[in-house]
Specification:
five-stranded parallel sheet; two-stranded antiparallel ribbon; alpha/beta
Length: 238
């Protein structure tokens, strides 16, 4: 059974669904790009190889990810979920990924953690694409202060995820009027997931990027947590 929220949480839960729907509407109807900054990709060019000594038909982009084959190393990730029309959107994305052999991640599953409504907006992804890698998703604020992984494991089960992503979004949570800018303990929460969740754990940032210093801290936590799990298994006899 999924988490049954207390009555006092109903208003907050309604805001979560509404916000997910607003994100899609704003992206379609408003200019949400950076006004001054950009990714600066235009400053870089690939070196042109005028003598490839290779036939185009011989180029093979196939690979494997999370133990499943991909036609191309591309991941469609973290779009939406948690309200009625999200089921249609996620079904379409999943069908496209299945057709082209791509991996897919669902949008934040916070709404599914808070209430039972609209679980199908997430689970439809696996139904529409049973063979591709699927990645679950939750925000860092929900990971901070975790004591066990039972609620997160239910989110993994909901989409039958091959891996699970934690998205870091401190700036977004700070700027949203109803945001939850509580990030003390996120690193410990990630370490707990790595040790105990049972599927690979990924960490991503939603728009401002990951600095080298943050990546090093995450790698350190991942390495230490993996070693702790290996040592536990060794002491437990397997």
């Amino acid at each position: 059974m999924y988490y049954e929220p207390p009555t006092a949480c109903v208003m907050k839960q309604t805001r979560t669904s509404s916000r997910k729907q607003q994100h899609v509407a704003l992206t379609i109807s408003k200019d949400v790009t950076f006004r001054v900054k950009n990714a600066r990709f235009e400053r870089w060019d690939f070196s042109h190889n005028a003598l490839p000594e290779l036939n185009f038909a011989d180029v093979d982009c196939t690979t494997s990810f999370l133990g499943k084959p991909l036609s191309f190393p591309l991941l469609v990730t973290g779009m939406t979920g948690g309200y009625r029309d999200a089921e249609r959107i996620n079904r379409g994305l999943a069908e496209a990924c299945a057709r082209h052999g791509l991996a897919m991640g669902v949008g934040s599953q916070r709404q599914a953690m808070e209430q039972r409504d609209h679980h199908s907006s997430y689970s439809v992804v696996r139904k529409a694409a049973p063979q591709i890698p699927i990645i679950g998703n939750i925000g860092a604020a929900e990971v901070a202060g975790l004591k066990d992984v039972s609620r997160i494991r239910k989110l993994v089960d909901l989409v039958r995820a091959d891996a699970f992503a934690v998205h870091l979004n401190p700036l977004q949570e700070l700027l949203q009027p109803e945001g939850t800018p509580n990030f003390a303990g996120v690193l410990d929460g990630i370490a707990l997931l790595v040790r105990s969740l049972g599927v690979p754990v990924m960490v991503k940032e939603i728009g401002a990027g990951l600095s080298a210093a943050v990546v090093r801290r995450l790698l350190d936590v991942g390495s230490r947590s993996s070693m702790s799990r290996s040592r536990r298994d060794q002491l437990g006899g397997g």
